Amino acid sequence: MNFHDIQAFLAIVKYGTISKAADELYISQTAVTRRLKTLEDELGIPLLDRGRGIKESTLTPSGRDFLSIAQRWNAVWEETQRFKSLGERLSLSIGSVQILNDYVFPALYSRLLTHSPGMNLYIHTEHAIEFPPLVEQRVIDVAIGWRDSASPELSCQPWRQSPLVCVMPGDPQESAQSPINPRRLDCTKELYINWPPSFTQWHETYWPADQFHPSYVASAQLALQIMAHSGSWAVMPLFFAKYACQKGTFAYQYLTDPPEPLTAYILTHKTPRPNVQKSLSIFFEYLKQLDDDIF
């Protein structure tokens, strides 16, 4: 049983005669008759009453029973053709820290979503320390965060670095004019953001935790909102500082003795799932094209 035989049968039922069915299918009457006979021979039953003196073909009792089956068969075939026309559909599970997901990667995700063949994205926002086990378990296919990993199951590669600078309310035009000595900063007005351990170590050299108690905030975005009304300051990555300056009410300055730059690491499993290898290749190709000025 094939689509063309079913199609011929349904056309005869719909248009009443073999000649009209042939016209609609753009084939000869002989071809329609042959397809119908092939279907009847395969089923071992007559489906239509037809012959000399009969102007229109009519369904036999068995033909009436078979009609609903033929219609479902045809619907499945048409749905299969629509599915084929969509082409291959890819998927990728991506994880990153909030500041990268919110301010660096939206352009990347937009490109992936408009890629052909289409790709379903599963975007996770987590703390960097949570990525290694998630990638090991293949819950996430690729993760980008601030922490290195020594897991034997993972591939960990540095991607980009961003200097850490001091951000405060001010005129954006005055940004990056003269570096600030950290000792000149009023530690009572600091909004402390928990960057990687190297930042904590640097911070301890100037403001030991047993002597100074800054205000802790969960994210750079929240720090900006608080800073706008409190005259506070915070240490943030340069790419985010530039974003803050676009608002017109913030400025940033380099530090004379800065902390280590933030390094973003790419984590993938050494043996990724076979069905995401193509998606990973596409992801890394677009990642290379990400504007250097963004980060």
Key terms:
single chain; 295 residues; alpha/beta; Arc Repressor Mutant, subunit A; D-Maltodextrin-Binding Protein, domain 2; five-stranded mixed sheet; 20% strand
What would your notes on this structure say?
By secondary structure, the protein is of the alpha/beta class. It has three domains: 3-86, Arc Repressor Mutant, subunit A (Orthogonal Bundle); 90-161 and 263-294, Periplasmic binding protein-like II (D-Maltodextrin-Binding Protein, domain 2, 3-Layer(aba) Sandwich); 164-260, 3-Layer(aba) Sandwich (D-Maltodextrin-Binding Protein, domain 2), CATH 3.40.190.10. Helices cover 42% and strands 20% of the residues. It has eleven helices and twelve strands. Strand 1 and strand 2 (58-59) form a beta hairpin. Helix 1 crosses helix 4 and helix 2 crosses helix 3. The relative contact order is 0.14.
Q: In DSSP terms, counting alpha (H) and pi (I) runs of 4 or more, how many helices?
A: 11
| CATH superfamily membership of the largest domain | Periplasmic binding protein-like II
Largest sheet, in brief, is: 5 strands, mixed
* Envelope shape: elongated
CATH architecture of the largest domain: 3-Layer(aba) Sandwich
CATH topology of the largest domain: D-Maltodextrin-Binding Protein, domain 2
| Computed CA radius of gyration, to the nearest angstrom | 33 Å
The low-confidence runs, each spanning 5 or more residues with pLDDT under 50, are none
> End-to-end distance, in Å?
60 Å
Number of domains: 3
Strand content: 15-25%
Helix and strand content put the structural class at: alpha/beta
